[in-house]
């Protein structure tokens, strides 16, 4: 999201930014369909070749290295292409995160090269730790499901903030917003625990909507109406 926002900030005006968002959204449809088709063909090929795939994350390497349809050299090229595609996304994401931390959080645009390098290295190490945490987490789910599970807690407050800003003409105290976000995450975790333990109901990805609704409600409760002279 931060990466996409910074792309919009490079546009010369708001109309160009809106055009950029719409164009990107339309372009993502065929790209996602392409990857969906590739995944379908890989799954079909693995079934027809009677390949044993323990987890969805193992589908690609199993087909490339265990089926005999690809040589070792060609399989290596596939892996290099996969790494290159991942690094291009990771590079832009790290740039966005470090820029946001330096400019928006620390509010300092005059860092020395040494301090800037330290921030970049720190974020790279943090990202590596998070990736290893997802990999070694004691769970049989695929990595993408784990990422979406975590994103339900982080995206919920963002979703609530976005909907509140678009629909409610009320004033929010900025100092309370981070506190409300953390409180919302805690309430969402509690709701999930109660639903799972007491009602034997797993909300799944519905948790994102619950999270956003809680955040929106808290913003309505803690906000005030705009006065006429503030318009």
| SSE arrangement, N to C | HHHHHHEHHE
- Give the overall shape: globular
What's the alpha carbon Rg, rounded to whole Å? Answer: 22 Å
What proportion strand? Answer: under 5%
- First CA to last CA: what distance? 30 Å
Count of strand segments: 2
Largest sheet: 2 strands, antiparallel
Supply the key terms.
3 domains; two-stranded antiparallel sheet; 74% helix
List the helices and strands and how they pair.
Layout: H1 2-9, H2 14-48, H3 59-66, H4 72-105, H5 113-136, H6 143-167, E1 170-171, H7 177-198, H8 207-222, E2 224-225
Antiparallel strand pairs: 1-2
Helix pairs in contact: 2-3, 4-5, 6-7, 6-8, 7-8
Description:
It is a single chain. This protein is mainly alpha-helical. The protein folds into three domains: 11-70; 78-136; 145-231, no CATH class. It is 74% helix and 2% strand. The protein contains eight helices and two strands. It has a two-stranded antiparallel sheet with strand order 1-2. Helix 6 packs across helix 7, helix 6 runs parallel beside helix 8 (207-222) and helix 7 crosses helix 8. The longest helix has 35 residues, at 14-48. The chain is globular. It starts with a helix and ends in a 6-residue tail after the last strand. The model has no long low-confidence stretch (mean pLDDT 81).
């Amino acid at each position: 999201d931060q990466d996409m926002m910074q792309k919009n900030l490079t546009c010369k005006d708001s109309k160009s930014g809106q055009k950029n968002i719409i164009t990107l959204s339309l372009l993502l449809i065929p790209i996602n369909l392409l990857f969906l088709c590739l995944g379908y063909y890989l799954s079909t090929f693995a079934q027809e070749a009677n390949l044993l795939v323990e987890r969805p994350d193992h589908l690609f390497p199993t087909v490339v290295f265990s089926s005999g349809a690809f040589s070792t050299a060609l399989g290596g090229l596939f892996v290099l292409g996969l790494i290159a595609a991942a690094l291009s996304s990771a590079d832009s994401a790290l740039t966005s995160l470090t820029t946001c931390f330096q400019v928006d959080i620390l509010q300092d645009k005059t860092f020395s090269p040494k301090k800037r390098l330290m921030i970049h290295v720190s974020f790279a190490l943090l990202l590596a730790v998070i990736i290893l945490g997802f990999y070694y987490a004691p769970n049989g789910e695929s990595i993408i499901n784990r990422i979406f599970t975590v994103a339900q807690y982080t995206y919920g407050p963002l979703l609530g903030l976005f909907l509140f800003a678009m629909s409610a003409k009320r004033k929010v105290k900025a100092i309370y917003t981070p506190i409300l976000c953390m409180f919302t995450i805690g309430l969402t975790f509690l709701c999930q625990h109660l639903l799972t333990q007491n009602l034997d109901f797993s909300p799944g990805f519905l948790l994102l909507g619950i999270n956003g609704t809680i955040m929106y409600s808290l913003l309505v409760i803690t906000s005030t109406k705009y006065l006429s002279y503030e318009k």
